[in-house]
Amino acid sequence: MSDRTIRDFGDQWSHYGSNEGFYASSELLQDMFGPLVDLADLRGKRVADIGSGTGRIVRMLLDAGAAHVLAVEPSVGVEKLRENLSDVADRTEVLHAPGDELPPGRDLDFVISIGVVQFIADPLPTLAAARAALRPGGRLVIWVYGVEGNELYVAMVMALRTITTRLPHFALALLCSALGVLVDVYIAACRWLPLPMRDYMRNTLARVSRDKRKLTIYDQLNPTYAKYYRADELRSLLERAGFENVRLHNRRGYSWTAAGTRPA
After folding, report:
1. Which of 68, 90, 137, 198 has the fewest Cβ atoms within 10 Å of its own Cβ atom?
2. Distance between CA 199 and CA 247 in Å, rounded?
3. What integer pLDDT is reported at residue 1 of this predicted model?
4. 3-class SS at 13?
5. Cβ–Cβ contacts within 10 Å for residue 228, how many?
6. What is the model's pLDDT at position 257?
7. Model confidence band, residue 149 (pLDDT cutoffs 50, 70, 90)
8. Three state DSSP letters for 177-221
9. How far is 223 from 205, CA to CA, in rounded Å?
10. Three-state DSSP class for 135?
């Protein structure tokens, strides 16, 4: 399942390789971090990004002032990643490997993983590798899909995924374009009605281009494996991986950001 999910993302990044606008902004990164991390905390720091895809988060981290970013990507999308980071090669390193092969003893200040852990069937080895790569006192920050308050939405997505995970790219892309029209209508309705996920729709998804809204849909319907986390599951995962001072932030009522510290 893990190998197939990696292949799914390799195909995805070969078709959707660009990053621009609010979708690739420091403002969005701060929104993902919430109160757990301030972008100023990244200035001059050594960071690893697990599941770098086409380099969107790597760019955000560099724009926030990170001194050096180790980009970890297991799929064939690593070629697009290298291409997108070619102009900042002096501040980046690309590792073509899964997250559980992040080398230990790197004395990193931060390990970041945005929208990745929910696609790993057994994420504990990846988080353990992150802990081993951090310096004592270094911090792990991850963002994942959430369950609380989204039960109906999660049920709908999981039902769709029984079909969409089997579709070829062109068919899934067409479906996501059609769903994108429905999302546009839903965003418009959220301006007037207290609908589920209203905060996220109005303040995040409405601010990205239609192309990136389509990618957001595709990202949830494409991978073979995906999990939506409850708060207690996420806290337990970080604690079992050896992190302390674990804190959670419910981002705009539909997802979770979690941060933990490697014990000194």
Report:
1. 90
2. 22
3. 67
4. helix
5. 22
6. 98
7. confident
8. HHHHHHHHHHHHHHCCCCCCCHHHHHHCHHHCCHHHHHHHHHHHH
9. 20
10. strand
Query: Which tens digit of pLDDT belongs to each residue from 184-196?
Result: 999 999 999 999 8
Nearest CA-CA partner of 9 in 247, 234, 222: 222
Nearest to 63 by CA among 114, 23, 113, 29: 29
Sequence letter at residue 96: H
CA dihedral 44→241→235→219, nearest 10 degrees, is: 70
Q: Tell me how far apart the 2 most distant CA atoms of the chain are, in Å.
A: 52
Identity at 240, one-letter amino acid code: R
Q: Which of 233, 215, 228 lies closest to 119 in space, CA to CA?
A: 228
Complete DSSP assignment for 116-183: -GGG-SS-HHHHHHHHHHEEEEEEEEEEEEB-TT-HHHHHHHHHHHHHHTTS-HHHHHHHHHHHHHHH
Average pLDDT in the 110-129 region?
97
Q: How many CB atoms lie within 10 A of CB 182?
A: 10
Query: What does the radius of gyration of the chain's CA atoms come to, in whole angstroms?
Result: 18
Across residues 64-91, what is the average pLDDT?
Answer: 97
Residues 5/13, Cβ–Cβ less than 8 Å: no
Mean pLDDT of 6-25: 94
Q: Which tens digit of pLDDT belongs to each residue from 225-258?
A: 999 999 999 999 999 999 999 999 999 989 999 9
The H or E element spanning position 105 is none
Q: Taking residues 124-131, report their average pLDDT.
A: 98
Residue 78 · residue 13 · CB < 8 Å: no
Q: Residues near 206 by Cβ (< 8 Å), separated by ≥ 6?
A: 187
CB-based contact 216:208 (threshold 8 Å): yes
**Nearest alpha-carbon partner for 69 in 90, 86, 54:** 90
Task: Give the span between the Cα atoms of 86 and 97, in whole angstroms.
Answer: 19
